[in-house]
Amino acid sequence: MADLQDELHTTTEVGDFDDLPEPLPEPFPVEPCAPAAAGTTPLERARTILEAYPVADGYNGLPWALRHLPWYDLEVGESAVDTDVPRLREGRVGALLWSLHLPEGLDGDRAVGATLEQLDLIKTVVRNHPEGLRLAHTAGQTTDVRNCGRISVLLGPAGAAALGDSLGILRSLYALGVRVLTLTGVTWASEAGLTRFGEEVLREMNRLGVLADLSGASADTIRRALAVSKAPVMCTRSAARALRPHPANLPDDLLAALGENKGLCMVPLTAEQTGPTVRDVADHLDHVREVAGAECVGLSGTYDVGTAHPQELGDASCYPHLIAELLRRGWPETDIALLTWGNVQRVLRGADFTAHATSQRREPSTAKISDLDG
């Protein structure tokens, strides 16, 4: 993450950062939980920790899955999907990002329209399940929702194709609540890296408070995004390529760069990316923590996307089993609290801080892709 004291490359210069009074927010403060009673099992201890620091899940595909159901009730329970309110509560999930990703092949106006339909569906689902779910857009709102006994739903990641190469559409999606955008699948964020227009998109995301998701992006795109972005970046579905050579998993050099820039690698609970057992997932978490640091690792359930999950992690209720495995491996409870809740809070606060600072010094961009990449 580029230093906030660096000069912004803006379409319209309206000031600089020399007078910023404070750095980006510090790591999320973690208070140790009460000591475990004698005879407490790792699973019981895991549930206690998760009561204090619930899971902030980095990716959930429920919105698209619900499109194919004629009827559902997520508060009572829904066996046709992996996610419902009872299982979220059993898994001690406090917040989750609901994906707006679309099937391959949708682009242009079709992608924009399908994304708007997804947003409408999500808001309808949340409105119809008020005892379990609440929309949230900021770290503070997720905490407020948790204190009210509800589960936060954050909107995103959306696919970059939803922009239609228009910064005006980016601002409209932000106004509708989108807070994460995946920088892949478009001409301005490709295997060759970010183009000049892609860099302008990222700067406008910083100004608004939209986080960049780099899972699936090329190495050149990731490196350039780390250099350009003033806010933390996320990889919402990336494990360690050193342990499993999946294309969305990150090699150690990129994990180290992500850690140096205070980004966040959210390890997915899928057999394809991490392996068939809960121990395999824990191996990836160990590796990412070792290479990137405890402040840069998170969890991504990746439920309801049509992929197989490791044993003992079949649906959203299963997070305590993973945390119990980490306790058996000697993870400090403070690191577990960062993994489940604190690191996502830090990144959300970082995006808000950057947006507040940047929006006072940068006008909304009027750049067009034809102007910068033509």
TrEMBL record:
Superkingdom to which the source organism belongs: Bacteria
Basic and acidic residues: bias regions: 1-10
Region annotation Disordered: where it falls in the sequence: 1-37
Extent of Pro residues compositional bias: 22-32
GO molecular function, one term: metallodipeptidase activity
Gene Ontology BP, a term: proteolysis
Family matches, as Pfam families: Peptidase_M19
Protein name: Peptidase M19
